[in-house]
Specification:
The protein contains 4 helices and 17 strands. The chain is mostly beta strands. Strands 4-3-6-7-11-12 form a 6-stranded antiparallel β-sheet, with helices on one face. It has a 5-stranded antiparallel β-sheet with strand order 1-10-13-2-5, with no helix packed on it. β6 and β7 form a beta hairpin. The longest helix is centred in the C-terminal third of the chain and has 17 residues.
């Protein structure tokens, strides 16, 4: 697998250590092998690193809840240079994990994780997940908030290399445009992309538009906006098929009994009012703008769903003007 497909830079550590010096298992990723990994999301999204249009107010800059899966080669979360899968569209737009969790098929998935949101995009948060010999790929997505449809993520990372479980790997992230919204800035209004564009990386000069929040004319490469560090915690070797599910469930139960400081806590989602009526169009002739808004009734708590955008804008106007149609369409 070509990791350059996913990241600008990468650092991979394959300093494999012996699990059991007397073990007869030479190919530990083969049938009957499980591994537990810890994943750490560390933010690097600061005003110092990304000063242009840096979001300071509601919603302030942060990373949404993260959704990850360990899976077989028959599944994936997203593919660069391809149209986003339908189950991921709403996550790209709103960071809605519930829909992604319920709609994505579990047929080829071994484990699933949901990490709380990272409210301070310069800090870090962690979680754990299982992989098996038949489900050695790992994928994860995190939404950049606020943004039109921008995410960071890992697609189908192979954790079994040369028949050994990878000890540690660090991947530096750059923003990804899901291709479902045509906005250029963090606070762009809803502007559906029809037909959908392919998923692409956002760089310091792509899209080549000075309005883009990530456009920096004087630098060649953006600094990483975040990084994922994945390292192995434990391995199980020679596990019978009938025991795989039992070990997985037992480990999950123990994790819930002894939660770490990064585990899930009781949370509550943000609650907002219904949308107001649309305002009148700003122009009676030509292209104008109308808007509607809503207000916050209750802020999110303990990693609950973040408040959605509070203002929605839409184009409006009419070509029925005294001026000729040729002048109307000359913009």
């Amino acid at each position: 697998m070509n990791l350059n497909f996913l990241i600008i830079f990468f650092e991979i550590c394959l300093s494999f250590s012996a699990i059991n010096a007397n073990s007869n298992y030479e190919n530990v990723c083969e049938k009957g092998s499980l591994a537990v990994y810890q994943i750490e999301l560390e933010g690097n999204w600061t005003e110092e690193n990304f000063p242009k249009n840096y979001p300071k107010f509601r919603p302030h800059a942060h990373f949404s809840k993260s959704y990850g899966i360990s899976h077989s080669q028959h599944d994936y979360l997203f593919r660069m240079d391809d149209v986003v899968r339908p189950e991921l569209e709403n996550f790209c737009l709103r960071g809605d994990i519930e829909e992604l969790h319920t709609q994505i098929s579990k047929e080829n998935i071994f484990d699933e994780l949901i990490m709380p949101k990272l409210d301070d995009p310069s800090k870090k948060i962690e979680s754990r997940f299982f992989v098996s010999s038949n489900h050695s790929l790992f994928s994860i997505v995190t939404k950049i908030v606020p943004s039109p449809d921008w995410i960071i993520g890992i697609d189908s990372l192979e954790l079994c290399i040369d028949n050994k479980w990878v000890d540690e790997i660090k991947l530096e992230m750059q923003p990804i445009d899901c291709g479902v919204n045509s906005g250029f800035t963090f606070s762009s209004p809803i502007w559906d992309t029809i037909p959908r564009d392919d998923m692409t990386f956002i760089t310091s000069n792509f899209p080549n538009n000075h309005a883009s929040s990530f456009y920096y004319q004087n630098i060649t490469h953006l600094p990483p906006i975040a990084s994922f560090r994945i390292h192995k915690i434990k391995e199980y070797i020679g596990v019978k098929d009938s025991s795989v599910k039992r070990i997985h469930q037992k480990y999950r139960r123990n994790t819930l009994k002894n939660p770490s400081k990064h585990a899930h806590h009781d949370n509550s989602d943000c609650v907002v009012t219904k949308w107001s009526e649309w305002s009148t169009c700003s122009k009676e002739c030509g292209i104008g703008e109308k808007f509607r808004n809503r207000t916050i009734m209750r802020l999110e708590k303990n990693g609950g769903k973040a408040c959605p955008h509070l203002i929605e804008r839409s184009w409006c106007g009419s070509s029925r003007c005294e001026s000729s149609s040729s002048s109307y369409f000359s913009w």
